[in-house]
Amino acid sequence: MTSLFRYTAALVLLGVAPAFAADEDLDTPARGRAPAKERSIEDDIVREVERGYYLKSNVGSSIPVIERGGVLKPGTVLGFTVGQDFIDKEKFSAAWEVSFTQGIHNGRRYEDQAAYVDQGLQTTAQLIQGDIHTFGASAVVEASWYVTRRVGFGVRGGGGVVFAPLLMDPNGYQQRVVIDAWNSQDTTAHKAPHPLVQVGGTFEYYTKLSHFSLGVDADFQYAIGLAGGPAITGYMKYTF
């Protein structure tokens, strides 16, 4: 009888001990153990968008309408941008960015431009080599307002320089184009960089990947002494 009692008591103790261990609150400080690390609310927040330093890649089109609008056709524009959001709020952000761009435009054949000048359809100030390849650099300040956490609209403004280098051999250009075709009338389009001013708007959508966003920049750009018109480019942006 005594042996049976001892055996039953041992089984009861073995069952109760694990139960007490399972019910123990591991977050409650215990004798000989340091308190659990305190956590703040901010530790549990996962931010849906990232703002700060970023890189952008642009591709789109530029449409000349001023100065040489009738001489140059719409062309393709590529750009690379470095920037930073220096104001970061839930519904508003402001950023600076520096862009390097290049564009390709088809133009009237230089042989035909003299005839257009004679007919009064073009002035000598509009003379240009023909097809051109432009290179530019600009600095822009941008302010955006966000209608949702991921969607924003903004305004942009800035300036820079644009250069359209001569693509022909200089000696051949002087003889065949300026002297023979244009009756010794040269153009200033290829001689020096042209000051650039621009103003426009932007749209941005932050994807589910918080560092990546997509958008559209729509600007009116004027390279003084060369050409001006709207430039619309789509972009992909990565924010660090």
Describe the protein's architecture and organization:
The protein has 240 residues and is α+β, with helices and mostly antiparallel strands. 18% of the residues lie in helices and 43% in strands. An eight-stranded antiparallel beta barrel has the order 1-2-3-4-5-6-7-8. β2 and β3 form a beta hairpin.
Condensed summary:
By secondary structure, the chain is of the alpha+beta class. It has 3 helices and 8 strands, in the order αβββαββαβββ. It has helices at residues 2-23, 110-118, 170-181; strands at residues 53-62, 75-88, 92-105, 132-146, 151-163, 194-206, 212-223, 227-239.
Give the arrangement of secondary structure elements.
Blueprint: H1 2-23, E1 53-62, E2 75-88, E3 92-105, H2 110-118, E4 132-146, E5 151-163, H3 170-181, E6 194-206, E7 212-223, E8 227-239
Antiparallel strand pairs: 1-2, 1-8, 2-3, 3-4, 4-5, 5-6, 6-7, 7-8
Top keywords for this entry?
240 residues, alpha+beta, Porin, 8-stranded antiparallel beta barrel, 3 helices, elongated
Q: How many strands, what sense, and barrel or not for the largest sheet? A: 8 strands, antiparallel, barrel
Supply the number of structural domains.
1
Q: What is the CATH topology descriptor?
A: Porin
- Give the end-to-end Cα distance, rounded to a whole number of Å: 77 Å
Secondary-structure element pattern, one letter each = HEEEHEEHEEE
Give the neighbour order of strands across the main sheet: 1-2-3-4-5-6-7-8
Detail the poorly predicted runs: 16-34, 39-45
Computed CA radius of gyration, to the nearest angstrom: 34 Å
